[in-house]
Amino acid sequence: MSSLELxxxxxxxxxxxxxxxxxxxxxxxxxxxxxxxxxxxxxAKRREWxxxxxxxxxxxxxxIVDCLAADFGHRSNHATLVTDIYGAIEPLRHARKHxxxxxxxxxxxxxxxxxxxxxxxxxxxxxxxxxxxISPWNFPVNLTFGxxxxxxxxxxxxxxxxxEFTPATSELMQRMLRQAFDETxxxxxxxxxxxxxxxxxxxxxxxVFTGATSVARHVMRAAADNLxxxxxxxxGKSPVIISKSAEIEKAVTKMMSGKTLNAGxxxxxxxxxxxxxxxxxxxxxxxTKAVQGMYPTLLDNPDYSSIVNQRHYDRLRNLLxxxxxxxATLVEINPARExxxxxxxxxxxxxxxxxxxxxxxxxxxxxxxxxxxxxTYRQMSDVISYINDHPRxxxxxxxxxxxxxxxxxxxxxxxxxxxINDVLMHFSIEDLPFGGIGPAGMGSYHGLDGFKSFSxxxxxxxxxxxxxxxxxxxxxxxxxxxxxxxxxxx
Length: 490
What we know:
By secondary structure, this protein is α/β, with parallel strands linked by helices.
């Protein structure tokens, strides 16, 4: 909506916010009126919504690739096909395949004596209504259409606020969804922080936010005014643990593949790695070899993505300067020894930070770029203690073949999810819930868990024909006392 874009660029004052609130509130009201008038969508309607979304991703795949390349300055076309397009189609297909089973009422047990008298209980999953989506810039298509899989399967309508950092892609998604959906089914509103602030204050029936923990705090405060339930998909410093039992070259190759995908601009990207003290030089050599194999050159390599904008590029460069100033050794992996000082984009070579300490900024905040601090350890207990002394991460990655140690890491650490002997991959398994914990987020979606997150589990009890509650109504007497004497016991 161009009017919203213009308003979001205006002075941030009460009048602008009032106009935005009126415009956005009107869209929400139209969706709610349509939902109430039509009732819970049929299975056929939900599948139709899912099919329409899949069709858009297929039909507009070239436009999506081009817009993301434009927004990033340079972004790997193949990475976009895999992550943003196929990565969004797969959850929609999964939902289409399973939604009929997910919609079935669940029978629940009725306790004695009501069960013997004929009492029955079930749970029916009812659409919550209108779901808001605030999607991020790093995978804007995936993290808009991915949540729609659970939202549509659960029978909801949606209003989407995509990121202003990827304006071409945001405008494209607006055109795409407007072409296939009526505004009472799906609406897209674009704009900057002013739009985002007003959007997060709307009386949605559920709100999904994917982004930074710092911004999530503001979103959560705004949503609290209307007691809107939230799914917060955030991030944090996801650690990699390379066990003494791991095959180090294989482990580091997988780790660097995940770290360099989208130039590390992934909420689940490996944020730092623990390697055995005696294996640090081997790990550095393996990382160098892995990058050389994947990216013989970097500057003009179509497979290696740029940092999204100047602001994030400067932030990453400052992380490296700060680390070096505080005693870290930087290992820049630049296979062709190219000069990055003059370039049309914002590419940064993959860089290892050795001897990283907690007073360095690179160890304090989520990196979101192709920078990887390398820490060493002697005992696994030290690794576990370090992880537990810091905010709980969105992901944790363990490489190793020691089953006892694997179990120890799983039992003694808390994270949103875990991938063993790889990185990122638990996100891609549609039958696993995806979500964070603590500063890494709350709630989850994907597959059945997404369907349930975006549904209201309505408890339904059907009483037996026998009036089983008669003895619980006054006047009370000896009969009730006798019954309670039997029931109140260990």
